[in-house]
Specification:
This protein has 228 residues and is mainly beta. It contains 2 helices and 15 strands. A hairpin with a 2-residue loop joins strand 7 and strand 8. The N terminus is likely disordered.
Length: 228
């Protein structure tokens, strides 16, 4: 009987522990003036973080109570020394597979002796959800999902006539390439860099001067305002 009781207690404790593992949300740490110093967000297997300078982002998952971050990309702006130091410390923490758990709605990161407490950001304070595509693909249309980066400025290109093309690439190690056409449901704002999830749909029998694929916005994964 005693063994059964211990086993039941272990199962209950395990269930409680698993319920305190964060799956998604947005948290921040504030300075003495109450203004956010750094923010962290988990959404659909993606992490984004900011310590007052560059935006960091990459794939992330929770594994046995630890935050496991994949390749962490970042914008490349130069900022004040204290902001750069916070950024380096935050990046090192995220890459260290730290322990993570929720205490109520607060996010606790790191080992117990050096645990950081992050406060939740109210849902009303988060940016509005991106608009859905204006022309969603029909269910019958086969499509491929891709993640792409969009540069903050267009460049002159020549299709049938000179035009201003979006600059796109699939990884930050690749050079920018012209995208001849638009992304349905997406409007690029000059001076803002984006990471998008798109659906690529093959066009049957396209005109001779038209692309054989359509790009349709699925979601805006990240958008970063680039300082002039």
């Amino acid at each position: 009987m005693k063994g059964v009781t211990i086993a039941m207690m272990s199962l209950l404790l395990g269930a409680c522990a698993s319920s305190t593992v964060p799956q998604q949300g947005k948290w921040q740490q504030s300075g003495p003036d109450g203004k956010p110093l750094q923010t962290l967000q988990l959404t659909d297997g993606q992490l984004s973080a900011n310590a007052g300078c560059n935006q960091m982002f990459g794939p992330a998952r929770i594994e046995q109570g630890r935050l496991v971050v994949g390749t962490l990309a970042s914008t490349l702006m130069a900022c004040a020394p204290e902001a750069m130091q916070r950024e380096q410390a935050l990046a090192a923490l995220l890459r260290s597979r730290p322990q993570v758990r929720l205490d109520g709605d607060k996010l606790l990161i790191g080992e117990v002796a050096q645990q950081q407490v992050w406060q939740p950001v109210a849902a009303a304070a988060q940016p509005a959800a991106p608009a859905k595509p204006a022309k969603p693909a029909a269910a019958a249309e086969p499509s491929t999902t891709r993640l792409i980066y969009v540069a903050p400025e267009r460049r002159t290109c020549v299709g049938v006539a000179p035009m201003q093309c979006l600059q796109v690439r699939e990884s930050q190690q690749q050079p920018w390439q012209h995208h001849y056409g638009e992304i349905e449901g997406f409007t690029a704002e000059a001076g803002t860099a984006y990471r998008l999830r798109i659906r690529e749909i093959k066009v049957a029998n396209p005109p001779a001067d038209a692309p054989d694929r359509r790009w349709v916005l699925d979601s805006i994964v990240e958008q970063i305002r680039i300082a002039p």
